[in-house]
């Protein structure tokens, strides 16, 4: 039995994508629109959101910065003035900077924690009352396989994504018995501007369109943990459960760092 309602029919479904101006979010917007969903798109750059919205007259563009609590309240208010309900909220906004121990600064730490973790928590706080009042709807938090185990370069990023996985588990326990679906997405390497800074060959790299399809596949199955590409994420899941002595050796060996 699936852990969440299976989301398959998007016709007329109201979907709010946060972090929709680029990368995986933009690809998800394109695929959901093609499947008949009614979209609201958020992110900081209004120009980028308008480009993704294109000539879709029914699509709402709601610029917001996920790190600003008041932006969430404002956007949610605007949304609910126009929409009868929210069927799905997907939180994709994320920031990644490669950080090794000797490069750590309070500013880098704050930057990624603010967007990747507090942004998700602020967004959840903003939408959960509406989902509970509706007694239906689903929420998707985008984390990363980098949150499953410590990896060189992921000093802050990995910690924020581990926390998002943890947050999603607890959210599931609270919300699923009340009729709300909760999913966490753990992608491997996806070719977007986020990973464009990587100066190494990324294993099992996929496109943003492939990532968006994998997210929709996971939602259609009602998965809680939607991870991909499987050839990479399953190996990593296994590695994360190895004894530390073996895992640390493997992490050095595989990354060369
Ligand atoms: N690419 C990968 O390999 C990979 C792997 C694992 C997990 N992920 C996760 O997948 C999600 C999407 O990443 P992506 O690869 O598609 O990256 P991306 O192309 O850089 O997209 C990130 C999106 O987040 C928005 N954003 C960033 N900071 C924001 C803020 N403070 N407020 C509102 N929106 C903000 C950006 O738009 P604006 O700049 O206009 O605000 C952009 O639309 C992220 O959570 C990322 O951590 C990615």
TrEMBL record:
<keyword id="KW-0560">Oxidoreductase</keyword>
<dbReference type="InterPro" id="IPR036291">
    <property type="entry name" value="NAD(P)-bd_dom_sf"/>
</dbReference>
<protein>
    <submittedName>
        <fullName>SDR family NAD(P)-dependent oxidoreductase</fullName>
        <ecNumber>1.-.-.-</ecNumber>
    </submittedName>
</protein>
<dbReference type="GO" id="GO:0016491">
    <property type="term" value="F:oxidoreductase activity"/>
</dbReference>
<comment type="similarity">
    <text>Belongs to the short-chain dehydrogenases/reductases (SDR) family.</text>
</comment>
<dbReference type="InterPro" id="IPR002347">
    <property type="entry name" value="SDR_fam"/>
</dbReference>
<dbReference type="Pfam" id="PF00106">
    <property type="entry name" value="adh_short"/>
</dbReference>
